[in-house]
Please model this.
Amino acid sequence: MKAAVINAFGDTDQIEIVDIPRPAPQPDEVLVRVRAAAVNPKDTFIRKGYLKKYTGSDFPMLSGFDFAGEVAEVGAEAEAPAVGTAVYGMLDGWEGKTCAEYMAVKAHQLAVMPAELSFEEAAALPLVCSTALQALRDQAGIKPGQTVCINGAAGGVGSAAVRIAKILGAEVTGIASAGNHDFLRDLGADHCVDYNVEDITASEHRFDIFFDVFGNQPFDHVKPILKPKGVWVSTVLQSHVFKSVEATKDSPGKKAQLVIVAAHRGDLDQIRAWVEAGQLKPVIHATYPLEGIRDAHAQQETKHTRGKLVIRID
Ligand SMILES: NC(=O)c1ccc[n+]([C@@H]2O[C@H](COP(=O)([O-])OP(=O)(O)OC[C@H]3O[C@@H](n4cnc5c(N)ncnc54)[C@H](OP(=O)(O)O)[C@@H]3O)[C@@H](O)[C@H]2O)c1
Model:
């Protein structure tokens, strides 16, 4: 089967499309014929070796965490939809492998795909929507009527977070460059802030939740604009985040949290329900054939992608 592999830590030219044997599923796994995958910043960090302490250094390394495709085989102990069912999902952990014609996954990492979506559209949803949902619901305890600020609102996680915060009844402020403000309003943002013009942390705004998706607004900067019981949630595995989480863990007031996304079939089912109800839509910046994966990584590294980058696997 065709698969994208990383041959060594480095630039995009370390990614290559090769022929490798099709994996055989373990008894608790499902073999999926992947029709589309998506690229995330994590894929580029892994390729560059930034996450070496989690990934190890065994090459060649497969790549990719999001997928949509069809069930090709179900392991004897796996609870999964029947062979031929269209499914979508995301991988836990640090071992990517979805940019390949076939991959074997644990059954909890997939769910039935939203009806009416193409494989490309479905692959744009799992990791970013699960991250946004888990950050807002589980880490921040979002409630209807709360004020929520999303920093990095136009990207993959941010655009999902704007929609999901609106679905959950919040008043949403999105931070992005001015060229993305119409896009944010279309997603439902109530207010838009241009980070080139306004320093939100020096403003009169006050938030119940500040979701620092982009990762450049530390808790100590944001604390003054949090309401007394406000929650700051970060996506980045950096020491200042771990310190803030530890320092505020018993605080009755303002708290710092870190989201680490995990695959849950229940969340994928919730995302599907919102899509099928017309409340949530995939946002795709560009789609590439598997052979164009180097270009997709390069685009991801610009840090100015609007929504998702999808890989089509014919
Ligand atoms: N912990 C977890 O479980 C988890 C899960 C998913 C993602 N993440 C992390 O979350 C981060 C974001 O992921 P993503 O997929 O959303 O990335 P992304 O799609 O690459 O984000 C791109 C967006 O960042 C915005 N941006 C660029 N400079 C900015 C600035 N100075 N201030 C505010 N926004 C800015 C851009 O908007 P403009 O073009 O308007 O500038 C662009 O739309 C990454 O570090 C990723 O690794 C962590």
